[in-house]
Amino acid sequence: xxxxxxxxxxxxxxxxxxxxxxxxxxxxxxxxxxxxxxxxxxxxxxxxxxxxxxxxxxxxxxxxxxxxxxxxxxxxxxxxxxxxxxxx
Length: 88
Hints:
Helix content is 62%, strand content 14%. By secondary structure, it is α+β, with helices and mostly antiparallel strands. The chain has a two-stranded antiparallel sheet. The longest helix has 15 residues, at 73-87.
C-alpha cells in the first residue's frame, strides 16, 4: 500500500501512470478506452487508476452510462512542482 505521494512518482509503476495521465490530459476517457489506447490489460489500468484517484490526481465522472476519468488541477500543480524539482 502506498503511503506517501512521492511513492506515486518514484516506484516502477510511474511510467504506466504517467502514460495514463498524458492520455487523460488529451481528453477524458474510460478505463476500457485507456486499456485499448495504451495496450495494457484492463485490470492493470484499473489498478493504476485507483492509485491516481486515491491521491486526487484524477477524478471519475459519468458520461452517459460509462465512467470517464479526468485529470484534476492537483496533477497540474504537482507536475509543475516535479518539473521545477528536476531542474534544480
